[in-house]
Amino acid sequence: MSGPRTAECRVIQALVSDLLAGELEPDVAGAVEGHAASCPACGPVLAAERQVRDLVRSHASREVAPDFLRERVGGLLTARRGLRGRLASLLGTPGRAAAASAALATLLLAPSLYLLLAPRAEPIQVLTQASLAEHSRAALSRGWRAEWPDRGALLGYLRETLGLPLERLFVGDPDLELLEVYPSVVMGEKGVAILYRDRTGRTSTLLVLPGRGLEIPARNRMQIETFRPYLARADRHNLLIWKQGDLAYSLVSEQEEAALARVYLKIRKAP
Amino acid sequence: MSHPEDPVRREALEHLDGLYTLARWLARDTREAEDLVQETFLRALRFAHQFTPGTNLRAWMFQILRNLHLTARKRRGRDQALFGVPAGGAEGGSGSRPGPPDLPAPARADAGAALDLDAALHRLPEEFRTAVLLADLLGCSMAEVALIQGCPVGTVKSRLSRARGMLREMLKDYRP
Q1: How far is B35 from chain A (nearest CA, A)?
Q2: Residue B117 and residue B52 share a domain
Q3: A17: nearest CB among B72, B142, B168
Q4: How far does Cα B136 stand from its chain's mean position?
Q5: Does the reported pTM lie above 0.90?
Q6: By the CB < 8 Å criterion, does B101 face chain A?
Q7: Where is the domain boundary, B99, B127, B144?
Q8: Do B74 and B109 sit in the same domain of this protein?
């Protein structure tokens, strides 16, 4: 194969990708093919690129998504939108400006609808939902876990980030097998998420973040010895939320309350 | 009245196999590819308001998937540097994942040829490999590839041409 011989060859060779992509008008495509057929410089260039294109097309691995992934993605796409989304759909609000106008009109016309559109969730509710989301995300990020270095490095990271020597908690306890530690941002606060596994194989997530400003309501408390953390149940998970010093802790698990309480005490009493 | 999510919800599933194919090529790990695809759909729904109905949903979703992959790769590089683990891996570095076998190989049966081609593709720089896969395997137009890769069409042409040349050189002893 040799380089372009003439200005025409340069033009022809610049059009090879377009020709192979089928993006040339028929007459131009014919002219390129015609030139290549009789040109010792352009003919091999076109033939070589075409050969590789055909090889990739016919031999490179093409995948079919596994059924469980299709179901999971299908579930995401067909899941009902939240109230805000459904109302936005009814109101026809494609852009932010339109959304603001519609919200304002709704505010003037129907104060009760405004309350539905812009509910003021308590911080504890926001933290509950954020913890659940973080737990789900962590449970799904299986591939990433393998990328992390050894447990010693993880524990060092944990101590440096939290300023708490929690590593003792995760050593030699079959109900607290440390899987992953990573930085997390919840409610605009930088924190740490710790994913661990109990002896039954269930994974749980402990979130630790700055707790200043988080008010924990007096209701929904669970008495565990002398402690009374906040208990929430959502989406088949139990959550315990409490404050300890300047930090807020959120423990998310499918464990039953009694098992969760045992883990809570271990964390609460960690030196 | 339609909602910004509607076109995504209606049409996105059609592109699942293509997205999964690209994810497998980029991530080279089944689980990572599955997570990548799932995260792509989540992002597409979350940012559906940024998608203009009637434009190219497939290219938009491929773009999300590739950006997620590149971000994750960058993050892994940072984490590995932080903890003193050698960087590398999917993009031909000297990381923990095994590299492709030596190329080229002599003429062989179809299965062997496919293996050789896969290995040769993995030896290409990411932007070259992705351009070839999108154009030649997944049937994207050059304008779509340019949109996905965030570069001019001229750059795509150049990448395709150079990538095919490199593949041809790596597979020069291969006889289909």
Answers
A1: 7
A2: no
A3: B142
A4: 12
A5: no
A6: no
A7: B99
A8: no
Q: Say yes or no: B5 and B85 in one domain.
A: yes
Is residue B70 located within the same domain as residue B111? no
> What residue type is A153 in one-letter code?
A
pLDDT tens digits along A63-91:
899 888 888 888 888 765 543 444 344 33
- Chain A CB contacts of B3 under 8 Å are 81, 85, 88-89
Q: Choose the mutation target among B28, B49, B136 for the interface with A, i.e. most A CBs under 10 Å.
A: B136
Interface membership of B44 toward A (CB under 8 Å) = no
**Tokens at B63, concatenated:** 């773009």
For chain B, the domain total comes to: 2
Residue B29 contacts A where some CB pair is shorter than 8 Å: yes
Q: Are B126 and B9 in contact (CB under 8 A)?
A: no
CB neighbour list of residue A76: distance below 8 Å, 6 or more residues apart: B38, B41, B42, B45
Domain with CATH 3.30.200.100 in chain A: 123-268
As averages over each run of 10 residues, the pLDDT of chain B (176 residues) reads 68 92 90 89 85 85 94 73 46 35 37 71 93 94 93 93 92 66
Chain A neighbors of B83, CB-CB under 8 A: 148-149, 153, 157
Q: Which domain holds residue B52?
A: 1-99
Token look-up 């039954």 returns: A200
Enclosing H/E stretch for B37: helix B30-46
Q: Which residues of B touch A157 (CB under 8 A)?
A: 83
How far apart are alpha carbons A181 and A145 in whole angstroms? Answer: 9
Q: B99, B115, B143: which is the final residue of a domain?
A: B99
| DSSP-H helix ranges across chain A | 7-14, 16-20, 26-38, 42-59, 67-78, 83-91, 96-109, 111-117, 123-140, 142-145, 151-162, 257-268
The structural architecture, per CATH, of the domain A123-268 is 2-Layer Sandwich (3.30)
- Say whether A56 and B1 touch across the interface (CB within 8 A): no
Q: Quick one: B79 and B113 in the same domain? A: no
ipTM of the complex: 0.78
**What CATH number does residue B65 fall under?**
1.10.1740.10
Same-domain check for residues B135 and B174 = yes
Instruction: Indicate if B91 and B138 belong to the same structural domain.
Output: no
Q: Does residue B88 share a domain with residue B27?
A: yes
Across the interface, whether the CB atoms of A63 and B42 are under 8 A apart is answered: no
- Amino acid making up residue A252: V
Question: Are A94 and B4 within 8 A, CB to CB?
Answer: yes
